[in-house]
What does this fold into?
Amino acid sequence: MPVPIKVLKPLVFLLCLVPLAALIWAIVYHPETFSADPYADITDRTGDWTLRFVLITLAMTPLRQISGWNGAVRFRRMLGLFAFFYGFVHFLSYVWFTVFFDVQKITDDVLKRPFITVGFTAFVLMIPLAITSTKKWISRLGGKRWQSLHKAIYITGILGVIHYIWRVKSDIQNPLIYAILLTLLLGYRLWHKFRTVSVVR
Amino acid sequence: MLIKKPNDIPSSEITDESIFRNRRAFLRQLSTAAGIGAIGSVLPACVSAEPAPQAAGKPGPYDVVDEPKTPEKDVTTYNNYYEFGTGKDDPALHAGKFKTSPWTVQVDGVKKPAKYALDDLLKGITMEDRVYRMRCVEAWSMVIPWYGFPLATLINRLEPNPSAKFVEFRSIYAPDQMPGQRNPLTGLDWPYIEGLRMDEAMNPLTLFAVGVYGHKGPNQNGAPLRLVTPWKYGFKGIKAITSIRFVEQMPKSSWQLAYSAAYGFYANVNPNVNHPSWSQATERRLGGSGSSLLGGLLSGANPTRKTLMFNGYADQVASMYTGMDLRKNY
It folds into this structure.
């Protein structure tokens, strides 16, 4: 590749901050661009970006395998951490704007409402992945164990899409797009696995 | 007690009312100057539907007076009206060209069942302003000055069959004009159907609205004719009504048919009965927060408020449901 990873990485890092910067910019300078329920807009937008970053993260391995560009994998950790970051902001906006830091209400929601249960689980599953995302943790756990642990991101993706489907009242158009993309990304892995197995034979 | 006496009205409310009345007068002058007034002779109901000017700042017995009205911009740009799309801004974007005149309403189960021209149906009925809370099932709420008349006025005039126990309403089916009706993914069947028990329909709170903020329309708020039942969730407020049937069997509403575990026939606002996906105990009151969003965030103020039983209208409606298990009859 003509552009070295060392240069690309900070650029991608800044790019990943654009959705957050745009949101803050709008809050401070252009509040009129929000709907009549700006709090719902913030929660929705950060939720969208969480799912998008999960999907982008999941796209890195197929991108490497299809394009043959090994550099793709070097962005996986950063993108995954951004998925976790936007997931945290999304969770915070729910805690602030919907239940206003009421622990009892959060507990009720998480235990009684499948919509929240799956969204919360999807987020919580990212915590150990974020913690063990360092090189130190890879060697501490061993490559194989580390890899199987980090397959939890598949579950986060699936639960995230279910969370979105249950969030809409009846119109599943947008969640369906995420569901299709996720199916493609996970389906590719399955296909690749079986293909590899048969080639080895 | 939420519905306060007239002397509780804050001065800000009075100013607001006079502003929107003056604007209507201004628009009337404008339309006359432009020659649009001539249309009035073609559509007599337009003239008869002109409001009998209420003394400014004198709210009626059911008006909300101690909570600020949601700005007209928010009331008319943040709508659930799936016929025009599922986005909150879709109705305002796509309902502009919707044809609301001429308009007919098929009336059945009455003394003289027929397809009535809306103008004939409303002839002689005086429009009034009613400031009501509107609680959406999605846990947000507004305070909206509806422009319309009590449904009971029309029902008395129509003389329903004595055997009628319910009234069923149907919206227009016009996929050529309504993009949402062409979209198979909205999850709703068309036309939109709603219903009320007869006593609910006759309750003095129940309105047929032709507009908001002292004028007819706009289309995204349900013109030319919509239902308003302020103690029920907003989806009960069926819009663009083209059929009214007085029946003996309880009608099945559109949302009931789509997802009966979440949406029942009664749809009474009830903080103790939750949606499967979210709590109904609190709500966010919308309006004007956009301009002070940063201030609101920095102040750390609680953006939610407690939802009231029957949306604060228990005094007027609770007696209709005595002895009923509202957990089952949601």
Remarks:
- Residues 34 and 182 of chain A are 29 Å apart (CA to CA).
- Chain A is about 80% helix and 0% strand.
- The mean pLDDT of chain A is 93.
- Residues 38-67 of chain A form the longest helix (30 residues).
